[in-house]
Amino acid sequence: MIHYITIHYQDPSWIELQLKYINRNTTKPYKIWAFFGYHGEADAHHVNTIVKNNVESFHFLKSHRCSLRDRPSMRHWKQLDELTNIVLNDPETDKTDTFVWLDSDSLIISNINKFLDNLNCVDFAAVQRIENSTTTFPGGDLFPHPCFATCKAEFWKKNNLS
């Protein structure tokens, strides 16, 4: 089982597009776990319609209202942690299941199952933002970027990751 973990903020237009690409390029069973932060009721209604029309794909979706002053990126990692823990604590999640974290505007553009099968010998894989290079960190960010990261549930839990 693949567990897609994603957070959408302020713009519901990426939800349907991301879902379309996940459906098209995932051949094994999967579940989508998501948070959605919205500004207006029209956004919330639109997202609920998307989920109702694709109920077999979404396993969990929690919506919350954001104020216009909210800076979602400041707490993005905390919400990813919260969502990941929800997946880990789900009784149907197996230790051999694969977690895939995706930014809201990230798309699966080819068969992810083949890609993940080729990563069998790797415990954790992720995008590294080398363009965020500084004099202190000339190789870029030292942490994985959530636009795409993946590992097995067992690895995440065993290493008490965050």
Tell me what the structure shows.
With 162 residues, this protein is α/β, with parallel strands linked by helices. The chain is 32% helix and 27% strand. Strands 3-2-1-4-6-5 form a 6-stranded mixed beta sheet. The radius of gyration is 16 Å and the shape is globular.
What's the short version?
With 162 residues, this protein is α/β, with parallel strands linked by helices.
User: Level of helix content?
Assistant: 25-40%
Beta strand count: 6
Total DSSP helices:
5
Largest sheet: 6 strands, mixed
Helix and strand run? EHEHEHEHEEH
Brief descriptors of the model:
single chain; 162 residues; alpha/beta; 6-stranded mixed sheet; 6 strands; 27% strand; globular
Topology of this structure?
Blueprint: E1 2-9, H1 13-25, E2 30-38, H2 41-53, E3 58-65, H3 76-88, E4 98-103, H4 112-118, E5 124-127, E6 145-152, H5 153-158
Parallel strand pairs: 1-2, 1-4, 2-3
Antiparallel strand pairs: 4-6, 5-6
